Amino acid sequence: MWAAINSLASRLINVVNENTVINNSTNENRNVTIGGNVMSSTIHLSAISGSVSTTVSQLPSSPNPAQPGVKELLVELQIAIENDTELLEKGKATALEQFKVLAEVAQNRQQTEQKNLGSQAITFLKGAASILPDTAKSAEVCNNLLPLITKSLDLPS
């Protein structure tokens, strides 16, 4: 799944719009092509990482230091993904977006819609971890921590 994500994120995007309006006048060409690697210009890993860190930092810490809570588990998972040398920046960014979803679920545990999003994020991360090589640190960490996070958030497995 990581390979697919990285492949899709690196593709060129062509946009064609039949009714493009430029400067409040109809474009006679009626075709707009955007060239270049749009994803690399819009995804900034540090910005996503900072956003995830902010969301996770708002969660309460575990009352028992011997038993990590959701906050501690998400921090460990975030560090593993950010430091994994086998993932491209775009793959890391996509994974971090899923961690942000999990942090938001932890903030709103009672909302059914949030739980559904959390289940989808867990499924995505499990699938992504399953295709990483066994040597990838993030795959090992995902396999160990995702079941704990699922249980902590009371998500269906």
Structure description:
With 157 residues, the protein is mostly helical. The chain is 61% helix and 3% strand. The chain contains seven helices and two strands. A two-stranded antiparallel ribbon has the order 1-2. The two termini are 20 Å apart. Residues 13-43 have low confidence and may be disordered.
Give the structure's gist in a few sentences:
This protein is an all-alpha fold and 157 residues long. The chain has seven helices and two strands.
Strand order of the largest sheet: 1-2
> Please, how many helices?
7
Radius of gyration: 19 Å
Shape: globular
* DSSP strand tally: 2
Question: Topology, pairings included?
Answer:
Layout: H1 2-9, E1 21-22, E2 25-26, H2 38-42, H3 45-57, H4 70-83, H5 89-107, H6 112-131, H7 137-152
Antiparallel strand pairs: 1-2
Helix pairs in contact: 1-5, 3-4, 3-5, 4-5, 4-7, 5-6, 6-7
Features:
single chain, 157 residues, mainly alpha, two-stranded antiparallel sheet, 7 helices, 2 strands, 61% helix, globular
